[in-house]
Design brief:
226 residues; alpha/beta; two-stranded antiparallel ribbon; globular
């Protein structure tokens, strides 16, 4: 195995997905996911702090959209929120404007000092970006490069939302060659049925699910890469 920037190594890291104001009821976000009030955010922050005390690098992801982003219904005359259209052969859900770069509700709402780095995504106005690794046009973020540089082989993923950005990030993580664990009780989903389908899809891709506890994480870190 080459060091620093070569092949995937054996170390573990954390990816905290899109803990941003617009996805939380705490901030009355435009795309608030049910159950994302103060109690949930405190639990995620405490869990993330524990990850840091265990020596793990923690990478945050952050939607960072231009105001005319293709996923906003306001970018398409006559369209309404949550309509589905086709653009360039792609299925596109039209969302209310959210996480517009530089706005208050685009900010990550847990302690930003917990993050080793924050990876911005969804910056191209022409492509949506659920995955933290690349957008729907195939443009990569810096996440894979950062993980490989630190010789990371296993990623522990949680955040918002299970059925969208967590799912896409976890599946792409497997596709990029990482061992992927999703901490399911540190995630929240938009909808129960799409959550069920997302978990099935992740499982088929080889993603593993765990529930959070200090012992679970310590045990995971002791285990060899499978």
């Amino acid at each position: 195995m080459r060091r620093k920037g070569g092949e995937i190594g054996l170390k573990s890291a954390v990816i905290v997905v899109d803990l941003q104001g617009d996805f939380t009821t705490f901030k009355r976000g435009s795309l608030a996911v049910k159950g994302t009030g103060r109690v949930y955010l405190k639990r995620v922050e405490e869990a993330t702090r524990l990850m840091r005390t265990l020596g793990l690098a923690v990478y945050g992801t952050q939607d960072w959209h231009p105001r005319d982003h293709v996923s906003f219904f306001t970018s398409h005359e006559g369209k309404r929120p949550f309509e589905v259209i086709e653009i360039g052969g792609r299925r596109q859900v039209l969302w209310p404007p959210h996480c517009v770069k530089g706005t208050e509700n685009a900010r990550i709402v847990i302690d930003n000092n917990l993050f080793t780095a924050i990876v911005k995504k969804g910056q191209d106005p022409l492509f949506d970006s659920y995955s933290a690794f690349e957008d729907e046009g195939g443009q990569r973020t810096e996440l894979d490069e950062l993980l490989k540089y630190e010789e990371i082989g296993r990623v522990i993923v949680y955040g918002l939302a299970t059925d969208y950005c967590v799912k896409a990030t976890a599946i792409d993580g497997k596709r990029y060659g990482y061992e992927v664990y999703v901490i399911e009780d540190l995630c929240k989903a938009v909808d129960a049925e799409t959550e069920r389908l997302a978990k099935e899809e992740m499982s088929k891709a080889g993603v593993k699910f765990v529930r959070f506890s200090q012992e679970t994480i310590r045990s995971l870190l002791r285990s060899p890469r499978s």
